[in-house]
Give the backbone structure.
Amino acid sequence: QVLAERTAAAHQKAQAELARAEMLLANRKALRDKDSGYVAAEEWATLAAQVAIAKAEAAQTQAALDLARQDLDHARVRPLVAGTISTRSVATGQHLAPGALIATIVDASRLRLRFKVTESESVKLRALKDGGGNVSFTVRCWSGTHFSAKLLHVSPEADPRTRAVECLALIENPMRPLFPGLFAVIKTVVETRAKAIVIPDTAILPSERGTLAYVVEGGKARARQVLTGLFVREGAVEILEGLREGEALVVIGAAALREGAEVAISGGNSQGAPGAAEVQGPTRK
């Protein structure tokens, strides 16, 4: 910018010199038109040469000014997208090579939600995406507030190392309560089943035989192998096979039980009491 200002000043000076030379030549021409003897031939040639030199200098400074303005225009960085500068990677006066990173711009009006699911969950999410469905999520900094994002992409392949499938969703964030880098907990309804048996997830135990749950029959613990379905909400899971509605189910303290152990049904304060358990019945949702 300083160079452009100096070049503009030099061009103005050259134009002033040209105007002065042209004025002198015009005055002498007026006298010469009246009487050719008023102006000597040598003086006329000198004034004409001065005008030619001034014109050349004005043209030269005009070219330099055009180039300086072009360089100044190229020096102005114009982002391709609107947003807020998050980080600046250069300092004033620093020489930059083509393609160098200058700054990071964040457009928080629309954010991308990236998450991974299991192979079986990806099949259900793909059907949700095809139907134009949304996913719901929460973030820690806005506790209790549920946000929505439109599911855009479910990867057609799983990660060969983790077997997880990547998904992408679009968050419309016009008021900008959210910002990039947040950790989200995602929930979505992928299937609805009427009269499903639902139990607390604390009642199920992994084992070598599969997933187990303990029921109480005749005051004794009986292990049941169960087949789990959907996680219907936080802390609850669907049971497809292995339990019946109305059975007494051990929901707290099941890890300390074994097949045939006597169970003392507690009102919920069974911590530290061997053989004690809190019992509920499976419910249908």
